[in-house]
Write a structure and sequence with these properties.
Layout lengths: L1 H20 L4 E4 L9 H20 L3 E3 L8 E10 L2 E10 L2 E11 L3 H16 L4
Parallel strand pairs: 1-2, 1-3
Antiparallel strand pairs: 3-4, 4-5
Helix pairs in contact: 2-3
Length: 130
Amino acid sequence: MSARLALFALLLVGSFGSAASAPRRVYVVSWAAAGEASPERSALIAQADRQLREELRRRGASVVEGLGLRAAIVLKPSLEVFPRALKLSVVGVRDQKLLGTISTRAAGSNRDAQLRAIVNRACVEADLFE
């Protein structure tokens, strides 16, 4: 019985140690100025921003404000609204070095489903930035 308890304690301590040493991604989300955006586009951008930040956090990343953090990956998203589709483009940068670009598009269904699909895909791709 004490051998099982010792093994359990060892596994528990080991899992805490590996979780603490795992690097946590830090992102800054910086949208381009929308300019003269329609009310629908402004609402979609606000919703996309909220969903993007929530999805990144759900994936274990930190989303911070401001561009002063050197280790942060700066995501520069832009949203294009079409009559029956949405297109999300994201540029990933760290220390003024391009990490990659993401371009996702969804059509059909409704705006909420389109937005969920492109945000989810963009976050999967952002996890690949090194």
